[in-house]
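Appendix B: complex inputs.
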Amino acid sequence: MIDVHQSDAGPTPLPMSTEYSANETLDVKGLSCPMPVVKAKEAFDNLEPDDVMEVVATDPGSIADFEAWENRVDGVELLDQEEREEGGESVYYHWVKKTE
Amino acid sequence: MSTDTPSGEAEADGDVGGPSVEERIDELEAELADLRSETVNDPKRMTIIATKGTLDMAYPPLILGSTASAFGWDVTIFHTFWGLDILHKDKTDDLKLSAVGNPNMPVPNVLAALPGMDAMATKMMEKKIADNDTATIGELIDTCLQTGVELQACQMTQELMDYEEDDFFDGVTTGVGAATAIDDMADADIQLMI
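Resulting structure:
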């Protein structure tokens, strides 16, 4: 287990990627269902075990959909998810670890 | 005080010559292990029968198919009747939305039946798809084919519609019928008719 997320972060948002030291960041902003999960799967296939991927999406459905992806697929561990306000829009962060 | 002691019978059984309880347990454990390895090792399977060729009805099979494929599942989409148009190279970019028959359309059905209304409804939907960065039907077909979704074109309706094998995208499986679809569905964890 990676030692993650002590964050009751207080008023200043943490800079992205620091908590999980992601090996890869996947930007799927603007894409809607089913593409965030489909693209995440493609990128995930190229990772090594124990790698962590950060997925940045604007699809509000991606929160539930990434949970479902983790629920159904061996080797996918959803470490955390977070909604942030950036430039007036909601952005959804997902940190996914490849466990096998 | 109870004098009810039925255990004597069970002990006597062991001497009759059939498999002992231990042997039977071993057998059952072996069977269980086989079953477990089958269910664990086989990916889940989904089979969808796609029967509709309107723009709105073309989406669900492709969205569900590409997503299940991202789960690592084996997916077959069997296209029949108007569903064939989704796989037709010259028709797939030209799928229409029907203005009639949907009470949620912004115009009443009696007006929706007028000439040009389907085209208008389709334009509206295409604009919304573009504005929302929703994947196009073409992109979803590419995704499905690249990720190993089996896209099948029903032989009987292909002939009924006067379509040729070459009319379909490369990678589409032709020459299949109802028996193939049932064979697929019988082993599938999820079967959907759309």
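The two ends of chain A are 13 Å apart (CA to CA).
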